[in-house]
Amino acid sequence: MADITRLSATELLQLYRARELSPVEATQAVLERIDAQNPAINAYCLVRGDEALAAARASERRWHAGEPAGLLDGVPASVKDLLLTSGWPTLRGSRATDPAGPWTADAPAVARLREHGAVLLGKTTTPEWGWKAVGDSPLTGVTRNPWDPSRTTGGSSAGAAAAVACGLGPLALGTDGAGSVRIPASFCGIVGLKPTYGRVPVYPPSAFGTLSHVGPMTRTVADAALLLDVIGSPDARDSLALDRVAPAAGAVAASRVSGLRVAYSPALGIDLAGTGPVDPEVAAAVRTAVSALEARGAQITTADPGFGSPIAAFNVLWYAGAAAIVDGVPADRRHLLDPGLAEIAAEGAGYSALDYLRAQRERAELGALMGAFHETYDLLVTPTEPIVAFAAGAEVPEGWAEPRWPSWTPFTYPFNLTHQPAATVPGGFSAAGLPIGVQVVGRRHEDSLVLSACAAIEEALPWRDRWPS
What we know:
Blueprint: H1 9-17, H2 23-41, E1 44-47, H3 49-64, E2 76-80, H4 108-115, E3 119-124, E4 136-137, E5 141-142, E6 144-145, E7 148-152, H5 158-165, E8 171-176, H6 182-188, E9 191-194, E10 213-218, H7 221-231, E11 261-264, H8 280-295, E12 299-302, H9 311-327, H10 339-348, H11 353-376, E13 379-383, H12 414-417, E14 422-429, E15 435-442, H13 447-460
Parallel strand pairs: 2-3, 2-8, 11-12, 11-13
Antiparallel strand pairs: 1-3, 4-5, 6-7, 8-10, 9-10, 9-14, 13-15, 14-15
Helix pairs in contact: 2-3, 5-6, 7-13, 8-13, 9-10, 9-11
């Protein structure tokens, strides 16, 4: 049998069903790998091995009785440390959070994992309150890219991406307010999906409002679809959650791309003069992925959606959210905050209600524009990032013209503004061996179609056998 830690969730379930592997064996293998690898990578900020093994033994008994609890019974999974997990502290990467809790509730996605029998391993690292797209915080330090530990994982679902990339659990829950699932998934060479807003319920509401989504992070597209089905059930605590929809796993197929109208946008038509053009290696990898879609029968047109950079509107919404976070921190603990978070919060506190509503109006206009665009095109394909992973511990690459992280991720946050499903799938590697992600964006509610295009790219450009050394 292959290394157990390199098996996908769907492969583990097949082996459990055939009684060729037990959840206890799988969980033990993953925990041993966490013990060996986590000190260097810093993907987990909390590991509860005894609890995981107890859950795995209960799962083993259910499988032996022929009565698995749900779609993920016995599959090891991790939870980003922004999501409430009953009995475990959710510190959000912050020294200002009181570890005493109480910690009595599960976030909706965590509750669904438990209901479906997943084995919860622990919590993964995040920058403080998920405020930036790299993987360091004052509380947990720097999370490092498994492909090159001198490089960033990206963020804010930093530990989740690193864990999946190097076999520290096949499934991870991430959150995405501006690319926080897709950015680290791209930099670490895994699959990440930001679902249609409301597809996965959220509780408590994010300080960043409806920019923030919860989504799956996995090594395979099939696993992403399976995890989406599990966490995509309604929850009464989220008044904006969508009703249950048809399962994604059954609708995801590479063959679905045949005949689709796909817009290929090399740079979204956004002026990148202030940040630098798309890296040639990234551009070449994305073109190869687009060619793979064309080979499967997709109708490819080079076309941009037609919007300029919405960075100004995004910053108003994001910085105002940061101000709300800091406002909730006791004054005598604010000196413990990440200085960058404190800086953008101070700027956000200066915005007026009118500024906020103007930004929301621009957001609505962008959503309408993308709605019209998708009347012509079923899918949009772009780079996930214009660059590969840069130095760990830095907010921006060395020598970057802009001081803040949104400047180097211009292709992700626009689709948080529009609530569309957007996924990243590995499309290749740079000459230095760093992963390159391809982003696929669809119209709202077309999550399974987005994943189908990702499946076609995955099938044409297999990377499953390539692991960090």
